[in-house]
From TrEMBL:
This is Tautomerase. Residues 2-57 form the 4-oxalocrotonate tautomerase-like domain. It comes from Ureibacillus acetophenoni. Keywords: Isomerase. InterPro entries: 4-OT, 4-OT-like_dom, Tautomerase/MIF_sf. Its EC number is 5.3.2.-. The active site is at residue 2. Belongs to the 4-oxalocrotonate tautomerase family. PANTHER family: 2-HYDROXYMUCONATE TAUTOMERASE, TAUTOMERASE-RELATED. Signal peptide: none annotated.
Length: 60
């Protein structure tokens, strides 16, 4: 059973997250030749203050 974990910065709409889950699932089904029902996709949203680039948080 493939499990895909995706980390994203907060702020995407529910519709965007549904599209990500759907399209990632389809890609795994095609590339790994597994049934759609066996694919798990987990999206973890990271607050901007918890994401650092270049020594600063994304909200700075």
């Amino acid at each position: 059973m493939p499990i895909v974990q995706i980390q994203l910065l907060e702020g995407r709409s529910i519709e965007q997250k549904k599209n990500i889950i759907s399209e990632v699932t389809d890609a795994i089904v095609k590339s790994a030749d597994v049934p759609k029902e066996n694919v798990r996709v987990i999206i973890t949203e990271i607050p901007h203050v918890h994401w650092g680039t270049g020594g600063k948080t994304k909200d700075e």
